[in-house]
Amino acid sequence: MNVTEVLQCADQLVFTKTGKHLDDVQKAVITGVYQGKTYDEIADDCKRSESRVRNVGRQLWQILSKQLGEDINKSNFRSTFQRLHIQSSQNQNICHVNGSNYNFNFNREILYNTNKDTQQNITENQSKSLYRDLTLAPIITSFYDRTTELQTLSHWLIDQNLHLVSVLGLSGIGKTTLVKQFVDLNLQHFDVVIWKNIQLSQSLDNIINEIITGVDRDSTQTDNKLTQFFNLLRQQRCLIILDDFQELFIKGELAGEFKTEFKNFQNLLKMMTNLEHQSSFILISQEQCQEMISLDEDLYPIKCLDLQGLDHTEILKKWGLKDDEAWAEFSDMYGGNFLDLKDIASLIKSIFGGKVADFLKEDSLIVTKDMKSRLTELFKRLSPTEQEILSQLSKLDVPVSREDLRQSLSMSSMDLMNGLRSLGQRYLLTRIEGNQVLFDLSIVVREYVRTCCQD
């Protein structure tokens, strides 16, 4: 949902309540807040005092709260309107955008389900205990357009109620931020929402015990915690997020191999998809394991969302970079990776005065210290076979077939296939379909391997 759509939507809500359209200051407040700016920054933009801007904001939130029937404030304004936008794609009567005229049509009875039957359902559901534990979830200070991905997660987890969804991709691509945004927008669909980070808690027994006692402090202690846990998943609709899931896998082996002490997680994933219940797991990981893959989606309710790079325009504009005609080339060079773009954008502002075109004149690709650090940690996870394949691919500037790779490497065909598959499961390899399948590296990975990993 872009700023123009938000302004049109807010304008209709305010006009319906006051009979007046948004004035310039109100538009500046809505635009600035949606873009994550402070009142002080908005005041500078519209040449007004901060107190005036703050008062205008307070009046707007009051109007929008009354019109939408929920508490709207500066902190939740963006997430609320994005939730409405996602719901509008599922019901044409809600905040519907009609062509270029942005014809919004709110229907509160549909939007908030205030009909008689639904009110009865709400009363019945109040007997269920609602529990949220997001203490380990990140705070989202800015979120860039991932509307399609949010709609996909919403379809899988809310409409289809899939039991296991994995959000996968390279470090820095935005996996955790996307999932947190989804959670913020969809809390109302779940009785229990819990966020765990595997880096901080790698004991499945501890995680399950914390979930059970957190949801019901009066729960009776039993010897079989797993049975008690799945009873909870059946009785209430739970959403459980496990971040940094790759920390359970063995370093130096092919992707997705569980450490011996964490095989119980592997069994848990199988049980999540094999047993009947009404809950969902989201796994956030830099690499894929076999349990995340389903060859028969009718039998096993599993999905993977492979996260790609961001659309660069909104990001680079906010960061104040110049030469917008060069932004696409710059973003493509770094694969749309948010952290990489952020690192390089900071360098461009400090060294090149924000001029992207001047930066692109450099003879070689720039890989910052932070980028090298992230790639080094990733490279440490690779098996010797994968490292050898990457080393060979980095010497080439064109995509190469499996047969050509096999001829240049002293390894068996099976080792090569396993290595290529594993690199794909780590999102380090690009597969190009055509008359024959070709393999290639991203520009950043190729440069890193060439400069940092060669003997």
Can you describe what's shown?
- There is one protein chain.
- This protein has helices spanning 3-18, 24-34, 39-46, 50-68, 77-90, 108-112, 116-125, 147-159, 175-186, 204-215, 225-235, 263-274, 312-318, 327-333, 338-351, 356-359, 369-380, 384-394, 402-408, 413-425, 443-452; strands spanning 131-133, 164-168, 192-197, 238-243, 280-285, 302-306, 400-401, 430-432, 438-440.
- With 455 residues, the chain is of the alpha/beta class.
- The protein folds into four domains: 3-113, no CATH class; 128-306, P-loop containing nucleotide triphosphate hydrolases (Rossmann fold), CATH 3.40.50.300; 312-366, no CATH class; 373-452, Orthogonal Bundle (Arc Repressor Mutant, subunit A), CATH 1.10.10.
- The strands form two sheets. It has a six-stranded parallel beta sheet with strand order 1-3-4-5-2-6, sandwiched between helices. It has a three-stranded antiparallel beta sheet with strand order 7-9-8.
- Strand 8 (430-432) and strand 9 (438-440) form a beta hairpin.
- It is flat and about 75 Å long.
- The two termini are 49 Å apart.
- The relative contact order is 0.08.
Observed structural traits:
9% strand; 21 helices; 4 domains; 3-stranded antiparallel sheet; 50% helix; 455 residues; 6-stranded parallel sheet; alpha/beta; Rossmann fold
